[in-house]
Amino acid sequence: MKLLRLKITDPQGFRSLQTGFEHYFRTEWALQDEQGFAPFILAGRNGSGKSNLLEVLAAIFYHLECMYLLNLPDSFRYEEQENPNGFRSDQASPDGFEIEYLMPPPPDLDREDEQVRIRIIKPPEQAPVWALWNPLQEAWEALPAGAELRRQLLPDYILGYSSGENEILSLPFFKMRFIQFDEYWQALTQQLSYPGRPESRLVYLDSGFSQAILLCNLLLQDAATLSPFQEDIGIAALREFRIVIQLSFELDIDQISAFAILSGPQQQSIEDIIARHPALEPVETDDGFPRCRVNVVKLLDGEEDDPNAIIARFKRCATCWFLDPTTDTLYLDYYVNEATRQAFRENFDFAITGSPIGLFQAFQVLLTLNLYSVSDSLKADLYQSDSLYVSESVPILAADERIIRFKNVWLTKTDVAEPVLLKSFSDGEHQLLHTLGLCLLFKNTHSLFLLDEPETHFNPDWRANFVTRLYDSFGDADRQEMLITTHTPFVISDSRPEKVLVFRNYSG
User: Fold this and answer.
1) pTM, whole model, 2 decimals?
2) Smallest Cα–Cα separation from 379: which of 194, 179, 190?
3) Interior angle at CA 204, CA 203 and CA 205, nearest 5
4) Residues 6+ away with beta carbon under 8 Å from 352
5) Where is the ATPase AAA-type core domain (predicted)?
6) Fewer beta carbons within 10 angstroms: which end of the chain, N or C?
7) Residues near 448 by Cβ (< 8 Å), separated by ≥ 6?
8) Residue 276 vs residues 252, 279, 350: alpha-carbon distances, Å
9) Concatenated DSSP letters for 32-83?
10) What is the pLDDT of residues 89-100, one digit of tens each?
11) Are strands 40-43 and 481-486 parallel, antiparallel or unpaired?
């Protein structure tokens, strides 16, 4: 994935990017000379607008992704009568834009080129229009009809990260996280199949994903890939860890109706819904009111020999596991050796794909289920909100109420005699493992990385060598696009001059 051009045509602009703003990421000459991976560095003082470029790209690809998703909640979709403020393809923020980028041609597109040039134009108050560049005719051609082809021409993943609280960047990702939850919840309530991973490709990799990212890398990546962790932090190996999965929780009575099998004039009683839905189990009460627990991971569980069930796969990789029947909590303990790593390779497709993303997506689904306490009314408000404070309205669960949590992550370090608990690492060490780790995790994908100040807690030496670490990790790969914001000279000094974009404030 390579960005070529971006233009804002919304009369209102987008943040500090005024209408008419246009930037060419690469010219034809630059494309011919470009070799290997090199991130764009967006440099400027705080408030200079450097983050707005990341934010507008996140907003644009969020809009395009939502247009072609098959699984969208009813409270998100536009309905003239029922949901007049729902999502519409002809309304976006920014409401007018033009974007051009390169992607490999998908199998459904009859092209022999290594890369196809894609142009998407969204006029204000109109739906986006797609076109492909025909190099033989030297002209743009309308893309054949079909939502699936357009989905295939979007980046594999759009990945967001911010070291601070950048609500503008995180808002589209935050909404997409709830869409991913509703995709699973709808499959659970309606007894549909679930593929074991989210349909959408937007992922905001905040601190809640830190331990999942680290485990994926340390369990599945080879020693050469992990060398920065050893050289900079002194990590020798992952020693042991525990995964705790809450298999069920008690539903509020107003949540039970969503599990009804019958609809229309044949309304079911609460008791009948509980009795007939396989994911529900009645709870004995003293007040006479019907209550139940929902097996929230039912679509991820299965028999011990089920090759696809996520929970069964985690059990097969575990050194030992225990189910506490009083709390319906599954404890999985892992003492890590080569046999453990081989088990994860075999059970999470690494042996086939050579990618740790299968394991990451298993963690992602379970982490997304931690949103179960958010009410339908709050989600409906969130989907339609442009407020930068919307995340503050989402309740934060106590540790023992979460569907998944990681505990007792112990590592060995080259400069310490005894194993070290991950919790004891410094802020800078955590950030390096997180930011470099997410890059390693998705390095073999055609993805767009949007990293807002990923080095704020680094020491000066790590800051000055962060881009070099990325060069070493990505090598000659040129599949991905990465934009990094910074307000310090350290990252700039480690970057290619032609990739540095300087942002300034102008008044008057």
Assistant:
1) 0.94
2) 179
3) 105
4) none
5) 387-493
6) C
7) 1, 3, 57, 61, 155, 157, 158, 159, 480, 481, 482, 483
8) 18, 9, 38
9) HH--S---EEEE--TTSSHHHHHHHHHHHHHHHHHHH-S---TTTB-BTTTB
10) 999 999 999 999
11) parallel
